[in-house]
Specification:
Largest sheet: 7 strands, mixed
Distance between the termini: 76 Å
Number of strands: 18
Radius of gyration: 31 Å
Structural class: alpha+beta
Mean pLDDT: 84
Helix content: 40-55%
Number of helices: 19
Length: about 625
């Protein structure tokens, strides 16, 4: 393929000896790989020379290169940032794919407010608040916050306390989990002292808090106040329990991430330990498929770029098993991102080396634990697709499958759904739903309508993109399937097939799956195909068909819910869209509105006494 690139040698000679990002495309113009380089001339030329040093994944990528382009940047760090951005936007096939990329939660203390509160935050912001974390998941944050609420009576509510108006305290005050600053009788200094204790606790300085609580408990015992002593004892036990979960792993009371890598066969596993103030507050592992033969330094660099581009909090130190490719650039990028110096270290011995080895051992165990799951998953997806291609006599594996379903109740509010599976897995971003306008209670006509609308739109979009010189696969409807699955029997299948033939798309295979006996209907075959219940191909089709049914039903229910809401509240004089929305947001359901009194109805934003009386009288006169 690469020999077909026009003027290849001259284009390689003309590459600038400057930093930038290079983009590889296949024969269809699709982006298949994105990389960065300190010197574009040196890096890009490597791909078109001897490939003996390349991993199998990169060799496969090289074989599919039909063209390349590049973008110049002012520095290596700018190239790294641009590369991360483009990879997230295009998800090239041959780049290392961090599927587990996500935003980690934090504990936020709003010390920028007069009476700070404690809350879960999905990201950090430059707002003057203090952030602790990141934690591996929101459950860990919620558990820690619940422990803190039991230890320190600070508020978690969203009340605006800037006004001088005294407010009624909530339940937390009465169960001893909030000092109720909303009552305006708590000195700011007293509240601030409690907040300092919370921050000390989250910083890992918990021993001093335990010592203070033990002293208070002993004083309570000496005063024969056993009830107070029991409360203090429970607080000490809660802190001790949390300490057991947050194991002390470092004598250095600093923030660290420890990364371990294990590669075996086709895959790699990366383990990350989150250490804050010397305590491990969480851990996470990441499976990187088809990277088992990649160079570890290159793999580690790709992982760190994707991982830390989605993380707001960067620790002051990152411990690694090997020095990553372009490590100095990554170090500078992380330092610029944090605004403080970040150090990447590859420890050789001592406590830090043991931490890295522990991360590597955990990565190994995780990969071995997932190996059986991976094999089973491939059997459910790739194995099922290969079997399906063989059964249906297809020339290639049906990588993209689109499934259609019709939903209505007694012929009303007919809707249709289209769900998409790629590689045997749902692709939710490509799901579509349709309101059907054909005569009610005619499944055949409804199926014909949705198929015609979907593929007519796709053909029009392809023409529009081609006219603009854009990738014809990048539209909302322009990606066409390798197989179409219709929920239903011969009638629904024929209706869909007739539309496809009229659109010139009869080359796309289409089948029907009837739910009653799980029979597969194939065009031009008089008898349906019945597969064994344990057939991976049948089970895959059932999962996709059931997902289409679920998606259609959920859409139908939402429409019926809106219709019911409109039919009830819109019958009340003086209740328009604004008041209807306000009532539903406040009460949550029609039943709660029915049970409300006039005064409670009038207290809702956008309502008044007159409107409240009309609502009350409407429901109580029925």
């Amino acid at each position: 393929m690469i020999n077909d690139i026009p003027d290849l040698e001259q284009r390689l000679k003309d590459l600038p000896d400057k930093p930038g990002v290079y983009i590889m495309r296949d024969k269809n113009g699709r982006i298949i790989y994105i990389g960065k380089a300190v010197s574009l001339k040196n890096r890009v030329r490597q791909y078109f020379r001897s490939s003996t040093n390349h991993s199998p994944r990169i060799r496969s990528m090289i074989a599919h290169i039909a063209d390349f382009e590049y973008i110049l940047t002012d520095s290596e760090v700018e190239a790294l940032v641009l590369e991360c951005s483009l990879i997230k936007e295009y998800h090239p096939k041959y780049n290392v794919s961090l599927r587990d990329d996500k935003h980690y939660p934090y504990i936020k203390i709003t010390v920028n407010e007069p009476y700070p509160r404690i809350m879960l935050a999905r990201s950090t912001e430059p707002d003057g608040a203090r952030y602790f974390g990141p934690y591996p998941n929101s459950a860990a944050v919620k558990e820690t916050i619940e422990t803190l609420k039991g230890l320190f009576p600070v508020r978690t509510c969203k009340r605006n306390l800037t006004s001088k108006k005294k407010e009624r305290p909530c339940l937390d005050y009465y169960i001893g989990q909030c000092m109720a600053p909303c009552q305006k009788d708590i000195p700011a200094e007293q509240y601030a002292d409690v907040i300092r204790q919370v921050c000390d606790f989250l910083d890992g300085r918990q021993e001093g808090i335990i010592d203070k609580l033990k002293d208070q408990m002993q004083q309570a015992i000496d005063a024969l106040n056993f009830e107070k002593a029991a409360v203090l004892r429970d607080k000490i036990n809660a802190i001790s329990s949390l300490q057991e979960k947050q194991k002390v792993v470092s004598t250095e009371l600093i923030d660290q991430d420890v990364i371990g890598v294990f590669q075996q066969d086709e895959d790699s596993m990366i383990q990350v330990f989150f250490i804050r103030g010397g305590r491990m507050i969480g851990a996470e592992h990441f499976l990187l498929e088809d990277t088992g033969h990649d160079d570890t330094a290159s793999l580690l660099a790709s992982f760190m770029e994707q991982f830390y581009s989605g993380i707001n909090f960067i620790p002051s130190e990152v411990l690694l098993p090997v020095w990553p490719e372009d490590g100095q650039t990554i170090e500078k990028w992380l330092s610029d991102k944090k605004g403080l110096r970040i150090q990447l270290k590859v420890p050789i011995k001592g406590e830090k080396r043991k931490l890295v080895e522990m991360a590597e051992e955990n990565a190994k165990e995780a990969l071995e634990r997932f190996s059986l799951k991976i094999k089973a998953d491939k059997q459910r997806t790739q194995g099922a697709l290969e079997q399906l291609a063989e059964i249906l006599g297809l020339n290639q594996m049906p990588w993209r499958i689109e499934a259609f379903d019709i939903s209505h109740i007694q012929g009303t509010d007919t809707v249709a759904s289209m769900v998409v599976a790629e590689g045997g897995r749902p692709k939710n971003s490509d799901y579509r739903r349709f309101r059907i306008s054909t005569p009610q209670n005619d499944d055949f006509a409804s199926m014909a309508e949705v198929v015609e609308r979907r593929y007519s739109k796709g053909l029009a979009e392809k023409r529009e993109l081609a006219a603009k010189g854009l990738d014809i696969e990048n539209g909302k409807f322009s990606a066409f399937p390798d197989l179409i699955l219709i929920d239903g029997g011969r009638g629904q299948l024929n209706a869909a097939r007739q539309i496809l033939t009229g659109l010139g798309l009869d080359y796309i295979p289409v089948i029907g799956l009837a739910k009653e006996n799980e029979e597969i209907y194939i065009p031009d075959k008089p008898e349906p195909l019945v597969l064994p219940k344990d057939s991976p191909a049948l089970q895959l089709l059932q999962r996709i068909r059931d997902e289409a049914h679920r998606f259609a039903i959920s859409y139908h229910r939402s429409l019926r819910g809106k219709s019911a809401l409109q039919s009830v509240l819109d019958n009340i004089p003086g209740i328009g869209d604004k008041r209807r929305k306000a009532l539903m947001e406040y009460f949550g359901s029609i039943e709660n509105i029915k049970r409300a009194g006039v005064e409670e109805l009038a207290s809702v934003e956008a309502m008044n006494i007159s409107a409240a009386k009309k609502v009350y009288e409407y429901f109580h006169s029925i």
